[in-house]
């Protein structure tokens, strides 16, 4: 990770740091890879919804079956879900900022409001750095932190990672 420190972002974290804590680095994700990383599923969903709507419209325009006239409405569900995924990333970008101090990592995020999350270094048991195809084009990557949080669903346990997305020179 680059040793640069974005001085403009320091006030973003001053309110949550401890008195004797020193902020060593702050940064923001790069816009394009941040928006498009993790949104591929949303784009596929939007594509499916558009195909559904066009197909259902063609069936409804034949006039053969009145029961199919509202069939196109089911295509709105994946369309709204896909658009929400994309718009959430787009509108949360201005609130995204990352920082690490001599004691912990900090994340600032938020779609509607501003949320902060901190993880002390002694709680982090695993770190991963991944670089997707889109991230590689912009020389950025994603750093994932595991602090012991898990989710169990029908007997399957999944690790829950916190991540810094689209960080330059991870």
Automatic annotation (TrEMBL):
Entry's transmembrane regions: 31-55, 67-87
Keyword terms of this UniProt record: Membrane, Transmembrane, Transmembrane helix
Domain YdbS-like PH residue range list: 95-148
Superkingdom of origin organism: Bacteria
Pfam families named among the record's database cross-references: bPH_2
InterPro entries: YdbS-like_PH (IPR005182)
Protein name: PH domain-containing protein
């Amino acid at each position: 990770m680059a040793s640069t420190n974005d001085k403009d972002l320091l006030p973003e974290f001053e309110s949550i740091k401890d008195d004797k804590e020193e902020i060593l680095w702050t940064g923001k994700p790069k816009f394009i890879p941040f928006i498009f990383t993790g949104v591929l599923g949303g784009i596929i969903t939007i594509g499916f919804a558009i195909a559904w709507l066009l197909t259902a419209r063609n069936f409804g325009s034949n006039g053969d079956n009145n029961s199919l006239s509202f069939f196109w409405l089911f295509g709105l569900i994946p369309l709204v879900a896909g658009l929400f995924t994309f718009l959430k990333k787009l509108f949360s970008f201005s609130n995204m900022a990352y920082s690490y101090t001599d004691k912990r990592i900090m994340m600032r995020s938020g779609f509607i409001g501003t949320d902060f999350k901190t993880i002390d270094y002694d709680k982090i048991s695993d770190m991963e750095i991944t670089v997707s195809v889109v991230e590689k084009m912009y020389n950025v990557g994603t750093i994932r932190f595991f602090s012991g949080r898990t989710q169990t669903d029908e007997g399957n346990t999944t690790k829950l990672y916190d991540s810094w997305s689209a960080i330059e020179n991870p």
